[in-house]
Amino acid sequence: MSLWTAAEAAKATSGQAIGEWTCEGVSIDTRTIEQGDLFVALKAARDGHDFVAQALEKGAGAALVTHRPDGVSEEAPLLLVDDVLTALENLGKAARSRMKGKVVAVTGSVGKTSTKEMLRTVLSGQGKTHASVASYNNHWGVPLTLARMPADTDLAIIEIGMNHPGEIAPLVAFARPHVAVVTTVAPAHLAAFENIEGIAKEKGSIYSGLENGGVAIFNNDLEVTEILKDIASQYADTLVGFGEAETSDVCLSNVTISDTTTVGAARIFDEGYLFKVAVPGRHYAMNAMSVLATVKALDLDMAIAIADLGQWAPGAGRGLRKVISLDLADPSATIELIDDAYNANPASMAASLEVLAGADVKNDRGRISQGRRIAYLADMGELGETEVQIHQSLAKLPSIDEIDRVHCIGPLMRNLYEALPLQKRGRWTEDAAEMVTGIAKDLDAGDVIMAKGSLSMGMARVVDAIEKLGHPAPKVNEGTS
After folding, report:
1. Are residues 291 and 326 both part of a single domain?
2. Which of 85, 119, 151 is the last residue of a domain?
3. Is residue 167 part of a domain?
4. Which structural domain, as residue segments, surrounds residue 213?
5. How many folded domains does the chain comprise?
6. Banded pLDDT at 455 (limits 50, 70, 90)
7. Is the pLDDT of residue 481 over 50?
8. Would you list which residues are annotated within the binding site for ATP?
9. Where in this chain does the record put each Mur ligase C-terminal domain (predicted)?
10. Do residues 124 and 216 share a domain?
11. Considering the chain, what percentage of its residues have pLDDT values greater than 90?
12. pLDDT score recorded for residue 476
């Protein structure tokens, strides 16, 4: 069954279909477009209409446009609309309306993408599951995710993000979830909000789109939990708090963290469970609690969910661990990289440094013979007037005591660099490109390295440079996907 026929798409968008066509997917990028996709010519940094001919040449089933672009024949399969973004939104609304399954919406200052991916892994074992790709969680990402949703989807997970006040409510109105999750509220985007209470109110607005009988799931360990509960009580029939507080409906009672796994003991209402995720970190255990709360809210099989949860591991840039062989002739000459470079805010930075602090180094290897814990940290953006103090305060985290060397990138991280004890200071550079030039001298066999910073800082360059020091060795999270 096709995702969209010409007639269905035209009806959904109030557009005019040129030709009889069907589409199997929806794409906004000719670099990743697949055979049979509907190409959506959005206007962003570039006008998507400039790429319609290329999309059709690559096998697009049709293109969603406001006009026939130059170089596109009169016979080309098109869907003509007044406004492309509005049409995409309407396509997403139509996909949501025809879907008869359950929808989960996820937001949070930290962990929304990891939680969404956990949910994808867990729910996929209990029905046909559809979820956002990457971090498609903004004004075009949410309707695009919905427009891609097959009509026979049983379970859908929609990630919803924000940078400014008033962004979440319109997006959750498209998704119309049965369950809405706020993973946590932390100091992020403070440049756009006066305080963390303002962030909590915006995150809590995800509950405004709940369907009748909806379930609101929230972190019960926060200073702003009451704000979330107050908002949730206005829209949800059922409120579920998760966390370490004993008053939580879904309570994390114990966490054991090893070098490669996290094992948790949970009380889910009146029943006790053990669960595992194949990555170290208390924050991953907390994400798992919100996932298990969702499983309970959807009345799914908890035993299957916990078994599938144990198969989840983070993706690139979000805590993925890689072992890199520096010398193929010497199996012991390896370093371990914790790739957490996708983004950063104070809460996620603290969580990642805690993981690095607990990592097992390898001694009696390489020129130094003493394995070290080494961090490459770049500026955290959008923190407002307190940005200098927030960066300085990282030096006071308990985890810093267990980290041997901290390399800092960017003008804001200069504040951390100067606050660090002299023996822990590595190098400071203005940008990632400059840091990369010295990485080969920074590292030695037996080291464990973590890279993290805001997306705009380009920490993927640092990760790439570390990976190019050698060759991939067997994965730390072997057996996971």
Report:
1. no
2. 85
3. yes
4. 99-309
5. 3
6. confident
7. no
8. 108-114
9. 334-454
10. yes
11. 82
12. 42
Report the side by side order of strands in the sheet with 373-378: 425-429, 405-409, 373-378, 448-452, 334-339, 320-325, 471-472
Domain at 232, CATH number: 3.40.1190.10
Q: What is the pLDDT averaged over residues 429-455?
A: 95
Q: Let me know whether 129 and 240 are in one domain.
A: yes
Least confident span in 92-96, 176-180, 359-363: 359-363
Q: How confident is the model at residue 358 (pLDDT cuts 50, 70, 90)?
A: very high
Residue reference for tokens 């010409």: 6
Nearest residue to 149 via CA among 83, 207, 104:
104
Q: What is the mean pLDDT of residues 45-53?
A: 93
CATH code (residue 53): 3.40.1390.10
Is residue 432 in a domain? yes
In a domain, 90, yes or no: no
pLDDT at 480: 29
Q: What is the mean pLDDT of residues 52-61?
A: 96
Write down which residue in 37, 60, 85 finishes a domain: 85
Same domain (yes/no): 234, 347: no
Split at pLDDT 50, 70, 90, the class of 189 is low
Q: Does one domain contain both 173 and 285?
A: yes
Average pLDDT of the residues of the chain? 93
pTM as predicted: 0.84
pLDDT band (50, 70, 90) for residue 237: very high
Angstrom CA distances, 115 to 133, 160, 182, 268, 346, stand at 13, 12, 10, 18, 18
Residues annotated within the binding site are: 108-114
What pLDDT is attached to residue 362? 93
Mean of pLDDT values over 143-157: 98
Please give the pLDDT value at position 478.
35
Looking at the domain assignment, is residue 91 inside a domain?
no
